[in-house]
Amino acid sequence: MTAARKPAELLEFSDDLHVEDVDPLRTFLAARLREIVAAQPDGSDAHFAAERLEQLTSADCIQLADLLVAWEVVLEEERTEEPGETQRLRQDVSIWWARLCRTADRFRDHPDHDPRWRRLDYMNLWHAELMAGLTDAAGGVYGDGAHP
């Protein structure tokens, strides 16, 4: 069994995320989106759309928290290198985190916005190094050649 993890002070990789990282983001987004809902006339399409975004964002936060609870189990059982469902879980954590951070980025100038709420491009250091080795200076994966 692995030792209990603590939330990372600086988030570099999606593998660093904890369920504790979700609640502050959820609280921030809920407050910002409630402000938008309140600013829309009752019964209007804009009110409906803002209210739905608030509801969907809350559901996204719950989904991410659930994924991170499952990730903790994978870590405790030391199954991080298993193919299949474990790797899909890793990808899902990254996708759902990025989705929420994209919404939070809309409010990046708000004083309560946390710079931790940003997309994490890589799962871990190994993944970052692998991707750096696959790309050329122009950022493509095929070097000077065309797509096969």
Structure, explained:
The protein has 148 residues and is mostly helical. Helix content is 54%, strand content 0%. The chain is built from 4 helices and no strands. The longest helix has 32 residues, at 45-76. The termini are far apart. The model has no long low-confidence stretch (mean pLDDT 89).
Largest sheet: none
Low-confidence stretches: none
Amino-to-carboxy terminus distance: 45 Å
Helix-strand pattern = HHHH
How much beta, percentage-wise? under 5%
Roughly what percent helix?
40-55%
The number of distinct β-strands equals 0
Please tell me the overall pLDDT. 89
The gross shape turns out to be elongated
State the helix count.
4
Class by alpha and beta content: mainly alpha
From the alpha carbons, calculate the radius of gyration and give it in angstroms.
18 Å
